[in-house]
Amino acid sequence: xxxxxxSAECYPAAKAGGLGDVVGALPxxxxxxxxxxxxxxxxxxxxxxxEIDTDFIYEGTFPFDGKSLSFSVCRVEKKVLGFxxxxxxxxxxxxxxxxxxxxxxxxxxxxxxxxxxxxxIAALEWLNNRQNKPDIIHCHDHHTxxxxxxxxxxxxxxxFKEIPSVLTIHNGEYQGKYPADVYRTLPAFNxxxxxxxxWDKQVNCLAAGIxxxxxxxTVSEGYMQELLDDCNGLEHLLRQEExxxxxxxxxxxxxxxNPKTDPLLEKNFTVRSIxxxxxxxxxxxxxxxxxxxxxxxxxxxxRLVREKGADMIPDLITTCHNRGIEASFIVLGTGDPxxxxxxxxxxxxxxxxxDSRLEYNEKLAHQIxxxxxxxxxxxxxxxxxxxQFYAMRYGTIPVxxxxxxxxxxxIDISEPNGYGIVFKNFNLEEFVESVERGVDVFNQKELxxxxxxxxxxxxxxxxxxxxxxxxxxxxxxxxxx
Length: 481
Ligand code: GLC
Fold this sequence. Notes:
Blueprint: E1 2-6, H1 18-32, E2 36-42, H2 47-51, E3 55-64, E4 67-76, H3 78-81, E5 84-89, H4 112-129, E6 136-140, H5 146-153, E7 165-169, E8 177-178, E9 198-199, E10 202-204, H6 205-212, E11 215-218, H7 221-229, H8 235-240, E12 245-247, H9 274-288, E13 297-301, H10 313-322, E14 328-332, H11 337-349, E15 354-357, H12 362-371, E16 374-377, H13 387-393, E17 397-401, H14 404-409, E18 421-423, H15 428-443, H16 445-457, H17 462-477
Parallel strand pairs: 1-2, 1-6, 2-5, 6-7, 7-11, 11-12, 13-14, 13-16, 14-15, 16-17, 17-18
Antiparallel strand pairs: 3-4, 4-5, 8-10, 9-10
The structure holds alpha-D-glucopyranose (GLC).
Residues 17-19, 22, 170-171, 219, 250, 382-386, 405 line the site of alpha-D-glucopyranose.
């Protein structure tokens, strides 16, 4: 099968979060399984994309808002990433360093609609002009959710009507909502079907994708169930379309995330050398952050936003400190500016107990997974979560709230075959209690070492879930007329 992923992110070319990791790994695993998968991405000016060699492939024009815009397509060869990466240049829209946010101002780019609408049209325009059409088009989140709509409705893309489309929702909070009249920017379609684009009197890209994709997936079964109850206003629509939905849990790229070979670590290690390996990494990490290495080290990595429960971290640290809980805490991430201020102050008032780096830093993230004892994920909402997998692969015990993909993938240590620390309700008391349970485990050396070894051996690689996607693609192809 020939599978074309169209996405706003793809690691290592462009990553803002887990979506990038998924689109950077799944196509590689599909290729390993004998299929032909590739990715179409905007040609941003990220550091990685500025450095990499590309071949020029195609130049064309497409209609946008009644005008004709030019675009070009370049390719990164398959040997670089394990799949072909096609990059769409649209002058004035993507020749910037950020994906969604301007790194200089910290604000989202003002022309999100123009950027991602034009990217989606250009991607289809190019695919339309290629001789071999894909067997499946797989889109991700609202930035590419208009693709299934255009494949079905736009006269210009008639040839795509019979090609199955898949839309994966990595995050139902963001939906791509715009004023109703932006439909004018799209290539012509029958205006009697304008309603397909809309939800709540606005153009809603995610809603349009849910209505028109052949299959709608999310990144865990638990999250699919949650979305059917609450998808920020789209739950009713999802329930209506329930028969075409499925939850497939993400995996991780175990070549990139391998403590035995990871070039970013202070010391590589395996299950057999875990004690020494973790210890050396922990010392190096504690030197970088100003915290002592002899206490259990709890880390948080991720976007500092409500969804991830990051706003509970300051209260957690203050409470643990006040109660004299012997532990250290570190945070890596960026997000809500108000939370940045709070965390900065907290570093000053809790010297030697807490430290943070308020930045996006892939290298440091690897070092934190390797050097920490526990990784905290107190998410309010977690579609799948990948950090719990990375942590476990590096022998770090996850402390998670029971929600979405976290509930599906982390079993509490008190249960049969359990290995993590899970708390049920989103409140400070339960979170603090989980940290206390972690400290307890840390102090029972035998249990702690055994548990660390067990989690390193668990298989969360893409191998398992790739099979599920292949089955899904095949079932759609068999439905073609
Ligand atoms: C989003 C979700 C995260 C998920 C990732 C990849 O970032 O918040 O839970 O793992 O997408 O699907």
